[in-house]
Amino acid sequence: MRESTLRADYTAAERFMRRRETAGWGALRFLTPPEFLPHAVAGAALAYFTDDVCDRGDAEGRARRFEAWATRVRVALDTGTATHPLLRAYLHAARENGLPRDWADAYMAGTRAELTFPEFADEAEYQSYVDTLTWPGAMLSTGMTPHLVSDEDFAASVRQFADGFQRTDLVCDLAEDLSEGRLRLPRSDLDRYGVTRADLESGRDTPGVRALLAATVATARAALDAGTRIVDEVPHEYRPLVRGVIDISHYRLDNACDLGPAITQRSARDNPAVCVRLLVRARRMAPPIRRASSPQDPSGTVTAVLSTPRADPDAVARTGSRPTVITASTGPEPTTR
Predict the structure, then answer these.
(1) Residue 271: band (very low, low, confident or very high) from pLDDT cuts 50, 70, 90
(2) DSSP 8-state assignment for residue 325
(3) What is the tens place of the pLDDT at every residue in 167-211?
C-alpha cells in the first residue's frame, strides 16, 4: 500500500472519530502515545461506524444496510484489502498489532443480533450481550494495546472493563433508549425493586426507581473498579488513557446519581471542564507525550505512525491489486448522534 493511501485512510478514521465521538477522540489524542494513536482510532472508528450503519430508519432498513456493510467487512477480512478507508485503516492497524480477526467477526455477529434486540430478561442475558457485542467492540481498539500479560489474561481484563463501561451506558443512556422503545436494564432487576417499565417511561420518582438506579450504579462502579487491573497490565506510557477512561466513566455515574429518577427523562451531559481536569490528572501518571508534527500534518496524528517501524506500509496485507486513494466521504455516511 502506498504511504499516501495509508495516510489518507488513517486521516479519514481520525476525522470520523473527531466528528462522531469528540470526547473519546480528545481523550485518545491527549493521552495516547503518538505511535499508537492512529491504530487506536482506526479500531474505534470501525466499531462506531458499524453501530451508526444500524442506527437509522426502520428495522428493515437497518437490517438491509447492516448486511451490505457486513459483506464489505467480511470480504475485507478475507482478502486483506478494501475499498473503504475506515476498513483499510483497521486492516492495517490490526495486522500491525497482531489482533486476531475473530474479534471483528464476533463484533459483526453481535451487532447483527442486536438489530432484533428486545430486552434483557435477566442478568444472564445481559452478560451474554457483553460477551457477544460489548467485549468484541472494546477489543477492536483496546485489544491492540501493548500489554505485559498474556493475550488471554489481557482479553479477560478488557472483558471486565467492558462490563463496567456497558453498565455505565445502561444508566446514562436510559432516557435515549426509552425514547426509542428500548429497555436495557434487566427485567429481573425491575421486578426485584417493584418497578415497571411504565414507571421509567413516565419518569416516576419512587423508592423502587431510586433503589433500582442506585443498585445499577453500584454494580457499574464495582465492575469498573475490577477493570482497573488493566492499568497494571499495560506499559507505563499507556496507563494514563486507561485511567482517564475509567475516571470519566465514574464521573458520568456521578452525574446520573445527581439526576436521580430524572435520568429516565433526560441524559446527563458531560461538563467539558471537568473532563479536561480528569484527563490532565490521568496524564500526570506518565512523562509528557511528544508528538511529531509537520506543515502538512500539524496535529502529528498520522505523521507519528508513519514515521515508526510499526507502521511500515509494506506490512499491509496484499492481494496483488493497487488500492484506490479515496476520501472520508466514500461509502455509507453514518449520522452523528
Answers:
(1) confident
(2) P
(3) 999 999 999 989 888 899 999 999 999 999 999 999 999 999 999
What residue has cell string 495486522?
95
Angstrom distance (rounded) from CA 44 to CA 137: 8
Unique residue bearing C-alpha cell 471537568 = 274
Whose CA is closest to 31, among 286, 232, 230, 240? 240
d(Cα 311, Cα 216) in Å, to the nearest integer? 42
Compute how many other C-beta atoms are within 10 angstroms of the C-beta atom of residue 165.
Answer: 23
Q: Which three cell numbers stand for residue 330?
A: 466514500
Give the side-chain half-sphere CA count within 13 A for 225: 7
**CA gap 245, 278 in Å, rounded:** 9
Backbone φ and ψ for 277, nearest 5 degrees, come out as -60, -40
DSSP state of 130: I
Residue 117 has pLDDT above 60, yes or no: yes
Contact 330, 83 (CB under 8 A): yes
Amino acid making up residue 314: D
Q: Which residues contact 114 (CB under 8 A, 6 or more apart)?
A: 54, 129, 133
* Helix ranges (DSSP H) in the chain: 3-20, 22-31, 37-53, 59-79, 85-97, 102-114, 123-129, 135-139, 151-172, 174-179, 187-192, 197-201, 207-227, 239-259, 272-283, 301-306
By the 10 Å C-beta count (0-12 exposed, 13-18 middle, 19+ buried), 206 is classed as middle
Using pLDDT thresholds of 50, 70 and 90, give the confidence band for residue 269: confident
Read off the C-alpha cell for 162: 467492558
Q: What is the pLDDT of residue 275?
A: 87
